[in-house]
Amino acid sequence: MIIVPCPNCGPRNSGDLQNCGENISRPDPSTASLVEWREYLYMRENPAGWVTETWYCRGGCRRYFTIQRNTVTNEIRGQEAS
Amino acid sequence: MSEITFKSPVDVGPLTSPDGSVTVADAASTTKVQVRAGAGTAAAAALDVSYGSSRRRADDALVCGTRPDEWTIYGTPGQAAAISATVPTDGFVTVIDITHGRAMLRISGSNASASLNKICNLDLGEELTPNGAVFSASVGNVGCDLVRDDQNGQTSFLIACERSFGKFLFIAVADACTEFGVQIPAGWELHGH
To answer: What is the CATH number of the domain that holds A14?
Structure first.
């Protein structure tokens, strides 16, 4: 079990939240090539280490927020509202 | 806004343990008014409750800060129009009567927290959820809005969920109370024992 700190609700069981994945920047749809769009939709870094990701507090405040999580140790730092 | 005769999804009376330490009672007919308003609006100022807390007004309505910029007002049955009228609607504000869309139950007694903690992820101890605390959590795998609303010095929680989950939630909470002697009515058992 991972305890994830929601900025509004405080520490919550990760089962009450949803991991929305790594934060990635969205390319401009009017200028992005098919390759860039495909990478935006499907490709992720998936590092063994620190990753910045978005979570959704579905069981509590129903807000999105950003945290940094170590994918090896599940250590979490620096949460902030999205 | 006209009042419609309320029909609860739970058709069984209060269930109480023999020693009276825990009681589960249907409270679905409670008036429930949802307010969404920006932080700077007159509605937010009038409701005067921050996220995670509640207060009982002079008209006995319970104002709860359910989520950031969202409030739920609970009142006696049939008071939706009167309660809605108390909320200023200047600016970006919505006031909706959700009485019929939500089921609600009340669990109270000295063993209420112990029973509820079996099926709720949150720590329902005095430190984290004192009287007046408002929070949302999974109860029996159902997403619920909860309020710690003690009555006569007894620990008490109001639990609201989507109406279609109401009967299941009632049974799930009652099932968590069987350790203290609550008897589940025949045909309502969660388990095939």
So the answer is: 3.30.2270.10
Pairwise CA distance, residues B157 & B146, whole Å: 7
Query: Which tops the pLDDT comparison, B174 or B13?
Result: B174
Contact A29, A42 (CB under 8 A): no
Is residue A16 within 8 angstroms of chain B, CB to CB?
yes
Q: Are B137 and B117 in contact (CB under 8 A)?
A: no
Alpha carbon distance B63, B192 (integer Å): 40
Whether residues B137 and A8 touch (CB distance < 8 A) is answered with no
Q: What residue type is assigned to position B179 of the chain? A: E
Spell out the domains of chain B, with CATH numbers in brackets.
Answer: 15-180 (3.30.1360.120)
Which of left, alpha, beta for A48 (phi over 0: left; psi -120 to 50: alpha)?
A: beta
pLDDT at B1 over 60: no
Q: Do B136 and A61 touch (CB under 8 A)?
A: yes
Q: Give the amino acid at A65.
A: F
Q: Is the pLDDT of residue B177 over 70?
A: yes
Domain housing A27: 3-81
Q: Is B13 on the interface with A (CB under 8 A)?
A: no
Model confidence at B23, in pLDDT bands (50, 70, 90)?
A: very high
Cα B97–Cα B102–Cα B106 angle in degrees, nearest 5: 115
Reduced to 3 states (helix: H, G, I; strand: E, B; else coil), residue B76 is coil
* ipTM value > 0.90: no
- Which helix or strand (DSSP H or E) is residue B113 part of? helix B112-116
Is residue B89 less than 8 Å (CB to CB) from chain A? no
Q: How big is chain B by its Cα radius of gyration, in Å?
A: 17
